[in-house]
Structures are given as structure tokens and as C-alpha cells.
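A quick aside before the break. I want you to see a complete sequence-to-structure record at least once, exactly as it would be stored in a machine-readable document. Don't worry about memorizing anything.
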Amino acid sequence: MMVKKVGITFALVAILCASGLLAGCGNSSPSSTNNGPDYSNTVNWLALPSSQEAKEVDVFFLYPTVYQQSSESDPMVCAIDNPQMQAGAQAALSRTATAFETVANIYAPYYEQAAIQVLSLPFDEQQSIVGGQPTSDAISAFDYYITHYNKGRPFMLAGHSQGSNIMINLMADYMGKNPDVYERMIASYVPGYSITPQYLEQNPELRFATGADDTGVIVSYNTVAPNATAPDPVVLPGAMVINPITWTRDETLATAAQNLGGIALDSNGYAVLDAQGNPQRVLNYADAKIDTAKGELICSTADPNTLAPGVAMVASGIYHTFDYPFYFFDLRANAEKRVARYLEKE
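That is the input. The structure line, written in C-alpha cells, reads:
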């Protein structure tokens, strides 16, 4: 079977639990102030480039949900130096943000993250928790990045899952107040959460992508099997979708042969690397077709029984963890195209 042949098989439950299995290191120096994390302290950054001027463009990235409560006594929002979260974030970075490393300097802060158990709460309560300290941290980190690291360069935003939810909050809070910053935003990649028409009505300065090379736009989709056993909890009514293979918004099928390549994951949720230390390309694996009525991206070529069998809060057939790995090299090529287009216009 193709799934076993290419080695992309990886149980969703294993990825969600990997952060609890990986060793993490506590911070040896104070990481927070009374007002939240101190982002002048590099220990509070998951990723900073070795040379700030290595590339003409940056990407500011927020990692997905990797923290989970092991008991009801654990906090719903973890500390910035929680070892489980930091270890999970490192794995998540390797399978997501590295898609942009060929074209952008990666800046990724740690943030005080809500546990995956937040999904069991009513929607308004979820949004209140994620929109609290996690969003406050991200806005603080982004402001520090703009003030101290960015140096006027154009940039992309990127996130996944809770990171995308927070990034959507950040854009709503920051871009309207800082149009000069928004002018430098090439694109915002926020798969794993939903952009809705209501959100754009409330934030009229923001726009959803309509093609492969428009700039100043938002990219979003949520990947599921044709017959997922339950609704995807991050797909909101009216969710807008763009196809990450064709970069169109209609329901035309993009075949797995058109896909520029996905990546396989190891047992700890890291991207499998080739002999040169780069993410190993997996060809002819994932197709993509938009279901506009449901606001979902349908992948029919993966096997949900082996790839994502489901956990208590994420049902079988919801390929949430694979929004980046299925379309990794399509995302990379698209980021390169949008960057080239932006720089050409400038």
C-alpha cells in the first residue's frame, strides 16, 4: 500500500503525545516578567536566525497545539518554559515552519499555550482562553520582533492549529493599528484554523488569497478524509479554503501527481530528513479537492485507518496534523513565488 511504501504513515495520537515523550530542558534564567514573557531573553524563542540579514525576507511563526494536561490539576494554559510544550514545539517546527526556510529567516517565539483539552470546552470558552494569555504573548513577541529584529524587511506570517488561531487574533489586533507594518506582510499562512467572511468583514483591511501570487493575503485550509467520522473542530461555519496544490478556490480536483511533494514524519513527530539534512520529499501521496459547502479540503488518497485513527478530541479522518506535511513542498514553492512577486513589485 502507498501509505506504508512511502513511510508517511504516522498516527495522530502519537504526534499529540510525542511532546510528553521527548526530553525537554527547563530554562536556567528568568523567562518572564509580571507582564508576561520577556522576549528580549533569547531563551523565550524557539527559533531565531543565526544571521539576521541572511535573507531579504522573514517569517514569524507560531507552532500548533503540543501541550496537553496529564491530569485535571494541570493548568489549562502552561508556563512559557513548560518542558513538554517546548519539546513538542521543536518537533512541530521541523514539520511546518521549515517549509519556509529556503526563502525566509525564521522567527518563532515560545508562548504560554492552551492545552489540547481546550477543544472539549464550548466554543466561546475556547476562544476566551486562546484569546487571553496565548494571544497576548504572541502579540508581545511580534511587537518585539518588529521593533528589534525585523529592521524593515518584508515578512510572512505562518502558524498551524492553535498557532493559526492566535495568528488570526494577532492580525485583527495589530494590522489595522499598524498599516505600515501590514504593507510589508507578503502573506499569512494559517492552515489548521478557519478564516470566515465574518472575520474579514470585521477586519476589512485583511484579504483572503485568490491565486498563487497575490500578496498581503491570508492562506487557509483544513484537510480531512472524504468520510471523516466527525466534524473537524477547527472548521467554522463559512470557512474559506484555497487549494494548496493549484492555489485556486474552486472544487476542481488536484491529483496527487500534481502535488510537488509531502514529507514523512518519524515516531516523535519530526520531519524525516534526507542525507543532506533536509526534509525528505514524498511524491504522489496527497491529492486535494475543496468542498466549498463544508469549508474543508478533501484528501482522498490517504488511509485514515493507518494515518490518523483518531483520539478523544480529534476524530478519525481529520488530517489536522498533516496540513503542512501533505503539501509541504507546494507551500514552499508558493512562499517562494509570493516573495518573488512582492520583491518584484517593490
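Two observations worth writing down. Residues 2-21+43-345 form one domain. The CA atoms of residues 181 and 284 lie 39 Å apart. We'll return to this after the break.
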